[in-house]
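Now for one specimen:
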Amino acid sequence: MRKVEALVDRDFTVGETDRRLFGAFVEHLGRCVYGGLYEPGHPTADAHGFRGDVMQLVKELAPTIMRYPGGNFVSGYNWEDGVGPKDKRPRRLDLAWMSTETNEVGTNEFMDWCKAAGIEPMMAVNLGTRGADAARNLLEYCNHPGGTHWSDLRRQHGWEQPHGVKFWCLGNEMDGPWQMERKTADEYGRVAAETAKLMRWVDPTIELAACGSTSRTMPTYGAWENTVLEHTFDFIDYISLHTYLNDYAEDTAAFLASPDLMDSFIEEVTAMADAVAARRRSRKRLMLSFDEWNVWYRTRRRPADRVKPGWPVAPHILEEVYTMKDALAFGGACIALLNHADRVKVACLAQLVNAIAPIMTATGGPAWRQTIFFPFADFSNLGRGRVLQARLDSPTYAATYYDPRGSDDHRYPLPAVPYVKLSVVHDPDGGHLTVFALNRHLTESMPFDLVARGFKGLSLAGATQLRHDDLGAVNTQDRPEHVKPSPLGGVDVAGDRVGATLPPASWNVIRLRAA
């Protein structure tokens, strides 16, 4: 049995987690909105048609900011279709997901839902089929108090007070060939800069994110960031990143290693942004918005899982059923985000309900937690505070990760993957130290010892593990608690030292009281 040792120090930090790091994403995609958040006539629905059982699970999950309305959807969306009397809103063909959009839920309904959930709204503007004029009009509609055409229209629609949306995304994945009115880096950089300029004139207090490459595997990766940032650097606050981890190769060890590529992705984009700043001799530092991330592969490549014939409303698409194995890789992604809290200030799990989501629903029936629900809830509820620099001594293994959207051979060697992936967060206000530890060894437990210098008199507040003997285990409507956390026993705490045994293939959270 191999041993893992870790050292943290109270005075040496990566950075403070921004509350927006724990965000999620609602897109008009499949049953995310209709049949997910919104189902008038459901036994738990409120007066506005939003499901109460879903709201209860969302509050347990605890996302802090919510991206809306897309995603690919936003590149063809006319925001005006989704405001005003519902019986006068047009039905449109959605070319992103080959479905019919009823527009029953739009900007104002989303804002009301966010308010009820206690979640900050994040809005994306359409820089595909539209541009700066539509974007600044939407901003005026949302944020201006009154006395103008668009702000008074909001008031006529029944929302007297402005929504005060602070975070705005300038389009979505504009380098992707699947995107409506895809753009070159120069084309997008120009329109994004001009849109940002107009939006800041309307409301100087907003924060703006420009689109980075759709993924690290795009052929334009790097060159895209460089060109886009040359156009937008002076106008924006964030550059966005997207990634979806996969196990197409059915190689579990490599799949569980894939969150380490998120570390590389973050560090590379940080370097790209800082290089643009250096060429300007600027002290400004762009932060990163990782506003789409998840595990996604089963429903990604099969056409029947992405498109249903006949332009249906709210089709059953992208309804990924997550396994225990997926939850482990997902937990590794949470750790990667925590360990870059100095530059990743915003992140959004894609998505929230039904479509590649931690929450599933049955029409007219119950809602339940998928396996990935649990690591995110731990991450969001317990990961707030100062992320400490961790010195880790762990045995390693070699893996080769496969991504069909990547390089010519689609394979990425990872020669030295630590069996344990670790993050430690200190919450000085709450008086807690939280250890997040993923054991990626499939068959062996890992004795784990942590020294937390500068913390005297640590005591155990609680410890949980998420694991299952069957890595293919899932939660379903009939068995909604087949996979769930359980206590992690055998945790020893003495002074500034913590000892535990991490079970094989497990996500572990150790919560300590820290003076």
Q: What stands out?
A: DSSP finds eleven helices and 24 strands in the chain. The mean pLDDT is 97. The two ends are 33 Å apart (CA to CA). The first strand starts at residue 4 and ends at 16.
